[in-house]
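A quick aside before the break. I want you to see a complete sequence-to-structure record at least once, exactly as it would be stored in a machine-readable document. Don't worry about memorizing anything.
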Amino acid sequence: MTVRAILRAAAVLGAGSLALTACTTSDNSGPRADRSSESRPGAPAPDQSSAPAQTAAPDDNSGRVLAQVTGRDSIVLTITGVERAASGKSVTVSATLKNTGAKVFFGISAYGGTDASIKGRMHSLAGATLTDTAHNVRYNVLRDTAGGCLCSTALRALKPGETVPVFAQFPAPPASVRSVDFQLPTFPNSTIPLETAR
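That is the input. The structure line, written in tokens, reads:
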């Protein structure tokens, strides 16, 4: 092959290489620019969150805690409501009893108090009291016409981790009283707010 033929071949190869390089650079830069411009409109704005929206829990006072005390054998009393009747004559205390211990609790009978005239008191909240400390007056649980307490009855042993709802109804202190002490045998006193009837 002559020198001229070699130079001509080299020139053709060099031009082809330059053309290939130009095409490769152009192909890479073009799509990159296109991809970036296409992805921007679909990207979330900085203040948007990809997490699902949370809705508020219904306001049913199910998680309300007015007072909480621990009694014998790791039984926890949580007072969740104190409602004055519209008539102004009674107050109902709502609560839960939870066994936070590791053994079955059989001591429910202590909550019935010592008044033997109350029918079925041994497995009830008949021993609960409400005290108006401002006037130094203590109120016992109300009774029905049959002599039973207006409170939770037929309570059974509590298994470990078990929770039961309970209530007790009392004569209402004067409307001016804003707080009272609730006491159940084997538990410390609990001071709780007393709201007016709605």
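Two observations worth writing down. The longest strand covers residues 75-84. The two ends are 112 Å apart (CA to CA). We'll return to this after the break.
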